[in-house]
Every structure is written in structure tokens, then in C-alpha cells.
Amino acid sequence: MTTKNTNKENIISDGSFIADKAFGEAMTLASQQAEDKRDWRRYRHDPTNRDVAQPNWAVSIGGKNLFPEKEMIGVSGRAGKGKSQFSIQLFGSLAFNVPLLDITPLRKPRQTLFVDGEQSEFDTAFRLNAMFRTLGIQEFSSFPNNVEYLRLRSEPDNAKKKEITMEAIADLKPDLIFIDPLTDLIYDIEDKNEGVQLVNILLSKIDELNANLFAVVHQNEGGDSLKLRENVGSELMRKCRQLISVDAKNGGFEATATKGIPFSYQWRLTPSGSFTNDMSIAEQFIENEKQQKAQVFTKVIESRKGSKFDSKKQLAGYIGIQINSIDESKNKAYLKRAEELGVVSLSHDGHKYLLRVIENNGGEGNAANERG
Q: What is the 3-state secondary structure (H, E, C) of 230-291?
């Protein structure tokens, strides 16, 4: 009988313990939920903290200090009007911490990341070589250990490009970031929320890293020349500290501020393939520029001797020509560019042009032809 009473007491005791534990957990959860509701308090600004240091400026252009850290800078312009050339010049001056034409670096980045989403290997080499020559650095030089240049054109999935970019930012913790173009990190360009979220995430990251971020976005063709493409472009336009518009001018290019501190910066390519701000001789070397492009084009092709390409489209992408469809008008545009480079005549169609370039310069004509 005593045993039964003891068991009953144990059962009652255990039940009370379980009830107390459940009550305690419920109270803890309620406390956490109440704390979550007060989460806004941690974003309060303390007005007594007046020792906030002025942000460091990234560069001086024409004597004007520009681009403070912890800010996003938009670089805009129509296709082929110099956006990437301007970005490469900023990148070179800051990454190597030396003046380039009228650009003077005002701080030395701890770690630099350049994410290139659309340029071919030829176009990338051409712009980097122009930067190296202008800086007096040997062509095809390697980057310093604190500089990473990612070329993501071979990755067809924009969601994957975004993932790679965010992983690189998380691993490297760069304080200088270039993304060209920003729209390549958007999976659905019609999704307004995705564009807003991307800009907000990047703003949060650069605030955390005390970083400068230069984001390249295309301008709409025709109509409002200041309107940027896609929803992410509109969001960038609203939230960037400075918006730069780049356009062709006087046989060269000009970058001007359409939002933020006003400035003007002009440049063009020389016959030797470097950048110059001497616009007085612009007209005399347009033809030489074409020859220079053809020479670099040949160098890039020759550097890939023995390479295999899975398809003509892949090969086309490698040398900077996009074949989206069998379209006669598009093929004519591609061929016009090829003719300007001085490597083929208009008598060749798009595919024969690609094969001929490889046959003449890379030794892969037969392999490319067999692989189709």
C-alpha cells in the first residue's frame, strides 16, 4: 500500500515538473517574442555621438574629391559608350594605388573585387591592356594578391552569378567592389522586389565593410537618356550617392555626374592602345585604334591555341560576338564589327567568320568545325 502511495506521489511530482518546464519554456518564448517586437530599438541613432569620422574619399578627379566609402556609385550609359572603360580606369588607379590621367587615388583599398558579367575574353584583355599601358605596367601582368577579377560570362544562370558574387564578397570582405553590369545579378528583371532586395543587400554589405561599390547599369536607348534599364536600375538611381553618365564625345568618351558632386572626365584610346586625356588629336588615330584592336584580338586568340569549344555559340562568345538567333540583320552587324577589326570581309557569314578567325589565328578551325 505504501509503495502505491509513493508511486502516486512520484507521478504527481513528475507531472508538476513537466508542467513547470512547459510553463518556463512558454514564458521564455513570450519574452523572446516581446524582445523581437522591440528589435527596432537597436536601430536608434544616438545624437550625443558627434565624433563620427567623415568618410574617406576614393579618388580625386580634376581636383574634386569623389565617391565616399560606404556608398554605392552608379555608372550608366548606352551600349558601347565607354562605361566599362571608365570603370576599368577607376579600378586600375585604385587597385594599383597610382594616378591614371586625371584620376588620383585618395585611399589604398585593403581588398579589391571586380565582377565582370558580360565581357568576352578579348574585350576584357583589350581594356586591361589599355589600363596596364597607361599605368606603365607590362601587358598581361598578374594582379596583386589583394585584387580579384572574376569573369562570369561563361555562367548562363544569373542566380548563380549572384551566388558567386555574394560568396566572393563574404570570403574576401573587399572594401572596393565593381559589378559590371548589376543587372546580371538579377534572375527576373521584371521582378521589382528582386531589384530592390539586391540593392538593399549590397548597401548593407558596403556599410558593414566600409567599402566603395561601383555598379554599372545600361541606360535605355532613346527617350529619357537618364532613365536606367530595368527595376534594379531605377532602384540604383534612387539610392546611389553619385550617378555617373558616360557617353561618346569628340572621338572619345566623357563621364559626367548626373547626380551628386558635379565633375567631367574625358579620355580616348591612343594608337598604341593606352588611355589618354589629350582630346586634341582624337581624329587622327581612329583607324590606328581599329588596327590595335585587331592586334589584341589576334593575341587573345593565339593565347588559346589548342583550346576546344563545345559549339559555335560558345566560340562566338569567347571572341566577343553574341549569336542569339539566325537573323540576317544581326549577322550583318556582327560582320561589320569583324570587318572593322580587319580580319574578314562581308562576303563571309557569321559562322564561317568564326571558323576562319580560328583557322588563321588559333589553329582550331577543323576542331571547331567538327564540333559544330
A: HHHHHHHHHHCCEEEEEEEECCEEEEEEEECCCCEEEEEECCCCCEECCHHHHHHHHHHHHH
CA 325 to chain centroid, in Å, comes to 26
Residue 282 C-alpha cell reads as 582624337
Residues in the chain: 372
Supply 128's cell numbers.
Answer: 586591361
pLDDT in the model for residue 318: 54
Q: How confident is the model at residue 304 (pLDDT cuts 50, 70, 90)?
A: low
- Residue 45's H or E segment, with its range, is none
Closest CA to 200 of 219, 185, 181: 185
pTM here is 0.67
Among residues 149, 222, 159, the alpha carbon closest in space to that of 180 is found at 149
CB 332 within 8 A of CB 324: no
CA-to-CA dists, residue 321 to 82, 219, 224, 297, 330, angstroms: 18, 21, 28, 12, 10
Contact 239, 72 (CB under 8 A): yes
Tell me the C-alpha distance between 178 and 184, whole Å.
Answer: 13
> Tens of pLDDT along 235-245?
888 889 999 99
Q: What are phi and psi of 54, to 5 degrees?
A: -65, 135
Q: Is the pLDDT of residue 308 over 50?
A: yes
Sign of the CA dihedral running 339, 349, 330, 79:
negative
**CA atoms 164, 165, 166, 170: torsion sign:** positive
95, 186, 196: which is closest to 142 by C-alpha? Answer: 95
Q: Which of 152, 210, 209 is nearest to 182 (CA)?
A: 152
Q: Name the helix (H) or strand (E) containing 96.
A: none
